[in-house]
Prior knowledge:
three-stranded antiparallel beta sheet; elongated; single chain; two-stranded antiparallel ribbon; 5 strands; alpha+beta
Amino acid sequence: MKTFDVVCKENGSVIACATWEDSEENRKRLEDWAEFGYEKTSEKYVQGYDGKWYVEGTLPPKPLPTNEEIRQIRASSYRDSVDPLMSEYIRKKTFNLFAEDEEKVLLSAIENQVNRIKSENPYS
């Protein structure tokens, strides 16, 4: 099946991109929709992190997350990975439920999770 790429432009900027089957019906549709900014293109477009369309190879890099975004990612990761372990630690410590060396193992697991989260989400 033969295809062609179509873009829709508004005020000179591409707002949509698609690949259409090369059929008589689609060629007619393209002519009819030309007044709405639809046109055939030979360039390949990719959608950027910002939702805008760019010619392939001109995509701007995604900016690094801000320290506030990193803080939020870390907080979420701590809730998911560390808080359950901390809850278990506090419960066992409060009610003296630790078996031999279990406290050290659990503290080590907590420390490993915290270090993993920090290394995966460093502040800039």
